[in-house]
Specification:
By secondary structure, the protein is an alpha/beta fold. The chain is 28% helix and 26% strand. It has a 9-stranded mixed beta sheet. The chain has a 6-stranded parallel beta sheet with strand order 3-2-1-4-5-6, with helices on one face. The longest helix is centred in the last third of the chain and has 18 residues. It starts with 8 loop residues before the first strand and ends with a strand. 45% of the residues are buried.
Length: 342
């Protein structure tokens, strides 16, 4: 007896910008479990051209977000500052949402929006969680072959780097380098360690025209086993950084970059000597932009189909939001935020 064929999820895309063109649409149009039903954008010529390129329908952007066409999943590939009307209009629908990064500026915003959308129906695009190298590092932390994790150091940016994609309008961007550009490696701090809580102990931020251009912070992570891990990061366009994550274990240091899609994970054992490159023994190892985006979407669709949320859910990013909120109000006292466990 043949197994029952599952219908593919229909997907509507709001936003015909670069991220839709190079990431979401190339992946969704080759997946068996999804089919792109329509594309819309405030620029009709751009949306029409993209719809033609990927063989789907163009729909003019309605004045009221509630009048968007139906779809099983709606992708919001829009700047942070213009999403609010879409959240309000779509949260009552049965459609799932998949939202581009960055997600939320405050815990209040995060909790309010997540409260209205089931976890398995609210996806996020922190795709660096789906990198092969990220999954290897996460397993090394969990299995501890080099001893327990003691410290994480994150560097992001270089002299003259852009502070955000929408520098001309802070309301569109929501923030500068910290919120718009460096959100991927900052989110990895919590994903890799499965941190249950964290304390932000020091923040130094430099602002220019309403945008943050340099941030340094120190925090302490609490892991599920009760161990604490020191963490520091520097996000800047005023000086050079390592542009990687360095993770100090009891017996060695692991180093890798959230933007190096070669899959390289370096190891330097304590005491010096020869450096090594670590790779998994078999299994999928996404490294290219297409492979990583495909893996992320595959997991989101799997969670949506089973109604069991996973690491692609926006509900699983609460501590990332808490860190962002705390950094943008450095005068506030340290607070403790606990991640709700599924």
């Amino acid at each position: 007896m043949e197994s029952e064929t599952r219908p593919a999820f229909s997907v509507g895309v709001v936003g015909a910008g670069e991220i839709s063109r190079i990431a979401h649409l190339p992946v969704l149009t080759v997946m068996d479990d999804a089919t792109v039903a329509w594309i819309t954008d405030r620029d009709p010529s751009r949306a029409r051209a993209l719809a033609q390129e990927f063989g789907t329908d163009f729909h003019p952007l309605p004045d009221d977000a509630a009048d968007l066409p139906e779809a099983d999943i709606i992708v919001l590939a829009l700047p942070y500052g213009v999403r609010a009307p879409y959240y309000e209009a779509l949260r009552e629908r049965a459609s799932a949402l998949f939202v581009e990064k960055p997600l939320f500026r405050t815990l209040e915003e995060h909790r309010r929006l997540c409260a209205g959308i089931p976890a398995h129906r609210f996806g996020q695009s922190f795709t660096r969680r789906s990198m092969g190298s990220s999954r290897v590092v996460k397993r090394l932390i969990e299995q501890a072959p080099f001893g327990p994790l003691r410290e994480i150091r994150v560097g992001f940016g270089h002299m003259g780097a852009l502070s955000g994609n929408y520098q001309s309008d802070i309301r569109m961007a929501g923030g500068g380098m910290l919120f718009d550009s460096a959100i991927h490696p900052l989110d990895l701090i919590f994903f890799l360690t499965s941190a249950t809580a964290h304390r932000v102990e020091d923040v130094q931020m430099v602002m220019d025209g309403g945008f943050d251009v340099h941030t340094e912070a120190k925090l302490t992570l609490e892991r599920p086993d009760g161990d604490e891990v020191r963490c520091s990061f520097k996000v800047t366009c005023l000086e050079e950084t390592t542009n990687r994550l360095d993770l100090d274990f009891e017996n060695g240091t692991i180093a890798y970059s959230a933007y190096d899609r070669t899959g390289r994970v370096g190891l330097q054992l304590r005491g010096g000597g020869e450096a090594f490159r670590l790779t998994p023994d078999g299994g999928p190892y996404p490294t290219t932009h297409f492979q990583i985006t495909y893996e992320h979407w595959r997991n989101f669709l799997q969670g949506l189909r089973s109604e069991r949320p996973n690491y692609t859910s926006a509900h699983e990013t609460l501590q990332t939001t808490q860190l962002i909120e705390r950094c943008y109000r450095p005068a506030a006292p340290p607070v403790l935020a606990s991640e709700p466990r599924a």
